[in-house]
Design a protein that fits this description.
Elements (H helix, E strand, L loop, with lengths): L13 H4 L14 E2 L2 H32 L40 H38 L3 E2 L1 H25 L1
Antiparallel strand pairs: 1-2
Helix pairs in contact: 2-3, 2-4, 3-4
Main location: membrane
Keywords: Membrane, Transmembrane, Transmembrane helix
Protein name: Integral membrane protein
Length: about 180
């Protein structure tokens, strides 16, 4: 039983799940968090571990997609039926009146780096804000109830928070990509 555990301080959770009638609330061999700052710290580390790498993978994908865009291929219409000689407006592109402007200030690589750094910043801020909210709410609930928090609780809540976060961004990311 340790009151100031170092991170991650995992222990066998079976000591918590076994029959606990007539036993002390803090089991020998367990690690418990009592201070809100410790709960926040543990939750923050787990949020960084679970949240930042996945968003960095998305940022890397966006970086390479912007740096090396896919080649544009013209799709030939392959219809089994003959056309009736009516021009199809979707198959013929409209002529442009002016050529597209090139960006004199930023190259494609610069824009890709900005997008990657944006992903990095958003992932770190999302993990920080999520850890602040979840960590201090958990600390408040456990303190109000008079319980000592196991070091497994911030781990589990970081997983829950990250999964809920990814469920919320899935549709918008797919539409953008």
């Amino acid at each position: 039983m340790s009151l100031n555990p170092s991170w991650p301080s995992f222990y066998n959770p079976a000591i918590e799940l076994a029959p606990f009638e007539h036993r002390d609330a803090m089991q020998a061999g367990g690690y418990y968090l009592t201070k809100p700052s410790e709960v926040f710290r543990f939750t923050l580390y787990w949020m960084f571990i679970f949240h930042v790498p996945l968003l960095m993978i998305c940022g890397t994908y966006a970086f390479f997609n912007l740096t090396f865009p896919p080649s544009r291929q013209t799709l030939k219409s392959t219809y089994p039926l003959p056309t009736l000689g009516i021009p199809d407006s979707s198959s013929e592109p409209e002529p442009r009146l002016t050529p597209p402007r090139t960006n004199e200030r930023r190259s494609r690589l610069t824009f890709a780096i900005i997008v990657f750094l944006g992903f990095a910043f958003i992932s770190i801020m999302n993990a920080l804000v999520g850890a602040l909210v979840v960590g201090y709410v958990l600390a408040g609930v456990y303190h109000a109830a008079g319980f000592h928090m196991s070091t497994w609780v911030p781990f589990i809540w970081a997983i829950i928070t990250v999964l809920l976060s990814y469920m919320g961004i899935w549709p918008s990311v797919i539409e953008i990509i």
